[in-house]
Design a protein that fits this description.
This protein is an alpha/beta fold. It contains eight helices and nine strands. The protein has a single domain, classed as Uracil-DNA glycosylase-like domain (Uracil-DNA Glycosylase, subunit E).
Length: about 230
């Protein structure tokens, strides 16, 4: 795919996202997708992170901007718990499955490490700001995905458009399993797709989870990617 083709297709998707605005309740979409089209298309592997929902102001208000506009701003602040693991995972997979212990600390080499987010795509199931600013209500995400499938099927269009080699589902459970026709090959921790034969799917916790420490979390995802790609 040429960059100009992806630019045009992503604009079509953003036009659909724009329609989700809830002006009566001051809720506007937070646009997501490929963070830098040229870098994404040139990457050794096209990686798509799928998370649950974005955050802005209390009560689910706000929005009206793109995720790519805030990448790297102020070192992410509290959102670093989400973005730093995404940086480390992107770096690890795109650098011959580099383990955590061999990576630079993001804070020590922020500009270079943060640039890895421009090599990947990042979308949320829900495009509107979270109604809960402390913890996502999974029922809200299930509802958002079901409603999306009834209407413009934006998330599935994004997957189809971005043609990722690897999808990393972060805290979304089995939400996409049926639509991507996922199955788990024997003796593997990842999944393959009957719908997209070249696709690898890795399911894991949200990056800000409290179940796995950051090092363990990053090495798990990078390790599964290495495991699955080595079987090709």
């Amino acid at each position: 795919m040429e960059p100009k083709d992806l630019i045009a297709k992503e604009q079509e998707i953003h036009n659909l996202i724009e329609k989700l605005a809830d002006e009566d309740n001051d809720r506007y979409p937070i646009y997501d997708g490929v963070n830098d089209i040229e870098q994404y298309l040139k990457a050794k592997y096209k990686i798509l992170f799928i998370l649950k929902e974005p955050y802005d102001e209390s009560g689910g208000t706000g929005g009206g901007f793109s995720i790519k506009e805030i990448l790297g701003k102020g070192g992410y602040g509290r959102a670093s718990k989400t973005y730093y693991p995404l940086i480390y995972i992107s770096y690890g997979i795109l650098n011959d499955f580099c383990p955590w212990e061999d990576m630079d600390n993001v804070q020590d080499n922020f500009e270079e490490m943060n640039n890895y987010l421009y090599k990947v795509a990042h979308v949320n199931i829900s495009k509107l700001p979270s109604l809960n600013t402390t913890k996502t209500n999974i029922s809200d995400i299930i509802y958002a995905y079901a409603k999306d499938k009834e209407n413009d099927r934006i998330v599935l269009k994004q997957i189809d458009t971005y043609q990722p080699d690897i999808i990393i589902g972060c805290g979304i459970g089995n939400l996409l399993f049926a639509d991507l026709e996922l199955y788990q090959p024997e003796n593997t921790r990842g999944f393959r797709s009957r719908k997209y034969p070249d696709l690898i799917y890795i399911g894991t916790y949200h990056p800000a989870n409290r179940t796995m420490v950051q090092e363990e979390y990053v090495d798990y995802v990078v390790g599964v990617a290495r495991e699955m790609l080595s079987k090709e």
